[in-house]
Design goal:
The protein is mostly beta strands and 431 residues long. The chain contains five helices and 32 strands. It has helices at 24-32, 77-81, 167-171, 173-176, 247-251, and strands at 44-48, 51-55, 60-64, 71-76, 85-86, 91-92, 98-104, 110-116, 130-136, 142-144, 150-151, 155-160, 163-166, 184-186, 192-198, 203-204, 208-211, 215-224, 228-236, 262-269, 290-293, 298-302, 304-306, 312-315, 327-331, 342-347, 352-357, 362-364, 368-371, 381-389, 397-402, 408-413. Strands 11, 12, 15, 16, 17, 21 and 22 form a seven-stranded mixed β-sheet that branches. Strands 5, 6, 7, 8 and 9 form a five-stranded antiparallel β-sheet that branches.
Length: 431
């Protein structure tokens, strides 16, 4: 961009312009296949074995040196496993195998679950990645936007939410100058579909699980319990949260409270298809989430909400990934509601919420949970969060909280003359 003084790469909310350095044939191919989507990997940073990667939601990931933070290598998932887009939230199992959600639209609209083995003998796991499972889009020219998914030891849960990526518009983006977000259509009449894939067979369950239209970025956790899948996420009534992050609105603090994230629990009963039982078919006593048979082998889900609205960026003790758990943490970030400027702890069992908040000029990043290696309880550990302060007389700092009580353990301050970039997600890298 510094060479031609304009964006030539499509960003999430920024349109691009044709690159004058490309010849006519290169530009024609780029117009049909937007392969030069951004590799500005601001979305997340995660480990694959002993390797560290930065990612967004395109097919590009950057391998990073964990000591110097030098960008070592750009990997193209489209060339490795033929996915055009990939989630920023892979899930790693206890044996080190990682799974991620991707999509392809060149040979038909499909969602893919990519299996990434741990690196061995210096060979990156990404370079040995394979497509483990495949699901087809419910639409011929559109596919659902996704940011994360759920996984248990036996099932994968993919939410086909009615925020759809219009592939015709995506293909035309190079000619029309669309940003990625310009290619979205919110179609609430399509409802929300919970696609459940059996990992042992690789097949999607034939029973359709649907709910009212909703939007979400982040799954919290999923687990199996007595013939049910319990799936928790931070949900919104619609995707207008995306519009809040335009710079103009942030500068004017135009961050209304109309649409706020709320912890939602959906329960999917794993019962025989077409087993037309009357009434609620969720038998778990500890939840108000419900499920009801409808016609055409369809089950209608209603969710339970917990805690207060107004936070996102959820995290848990990673030892409880895919298992029944009790505590979830999150950040109020830029929200203006009850969780404004706060780090949140939700006790799911007691339906109680605690907050850490120091100043209305401070904005916490996603809290990262580090378990106490000698701890016995789920919340034995600490939380790390980067705190940005808009009062420039005060320093930004790394906050360390006791995860049980949300009391401060320590902080590492940066000189006020240096401002730390606002972060979204992060990870802890042990020395």
């Amino acid at each position: 961009m510094s060479t031609v003084n304009r964006p030539v790469v499509t960003e999430f909310g920024t349109k691009c312009y044709p690159d004058p350095c490309k010849n006519i044939f290169s530009r024609f191919f780029s117009a049909l296949v937007p392969s030069d989507l951004t590799d500005n990997n601001f979305g997340n940073i995660y480990r694959l074995g002993d390797e560290l990667f930065c990612t967004s939601e395109t097919c590009f990931v950057w391998k990073v040196d964990e000591d110097s933070l030098e960008a070592l290598q750009r990997l193209d998932l489209n060339k490795l496993v033929s996915v055009n887009l990939a989630s920023a939230h892979p899930i790693t199992e206890e044996d080190g195998t990682t799974y991620n959600l991707g999509a392809s639209f060149i040979t038909g609209l499909k969602y893919h679950i990519v299996k990434i083995p741990p690196p061995i003998k210096g060979v990156s796991g990404l370079k040995r990645a394979t497509v483990a499972y495949q699901m087809h889009s419910s639409w011929k020219t559109m596919f659902s936007y996704y940011h994360s998914f759920g996984m248990t030891s036996n099932y994968i849960i993919f939410v086909e939410q009615p925020l759809l990526v219009n592939t015709m518009r995506l293909i035309a983006s190079r000619v029309k100058g669309y940003s990625f977000k310009d290619c979205f259509d919110w179609v609430p009449k399509e409802k929300t579909k919970f696609v459940v894939l059996d990992r042992s067979t690789g097949q999607v369950l034939r029973t359709r699980f649907v709910s009212d239209p909703m939007f979400f970025f982040h799954a919290v956790n999923a687990y199996e319990d007595n013939g049910h899948l319990v799936f928790d996420l931070i949900g919104y009534d619609d995707p207008s949260i995306m519009d809040k992050y335009y710079m103009e609105r942030l500068r004017h603090e135009d961050f209304d409270t109309d649409t706020q994230g709320h912890f939602r629990r959906y329960v999917i009963p794993l019962i025989q298809e077409n087993n037309q039982v009357e009434g609620n078919i969720v038998s778990l006593k500890y939840t108000e989430a419900r499920a009801y048979w409808q016609t055409n082998n369809t089950v209608w889900l209603t969710h339970e909400e917990m805690g207060r609205k107004g936070y996102d960026l959820p995290t848990i003790n990673p030892k409880y990934q895919g298992k029944k758990y009790r505590y979830s943490y999150g950040s109020g970030n830029f929200e203006q509601g009850a969780c404004r400027n706060a780090i949140v702890k939700l006790d799911i069992e007691r339906r109680e919420m605690d907050l850490w908040r120091e100043s209305d000029t401070q904005y916490p990043s996603e809290p990262v949970f580090i378990a106490d290696p000698e701890g016995e309880d789920e919340d034995d550990g600490v939380l790390l969060s980067v705190i940005n302060d808009t009062d420039y007389s005060r320093p930004d700092f790394l906050l360390i909280l006791d995860a049980r009580s949300l009391t401060e353990v320590a902080r590492a301050e940066v000189d006020p003359s240096v401002r730390v970039c606002t972060s979204i997600h992060g990870c802890f890298v042990s020395s």
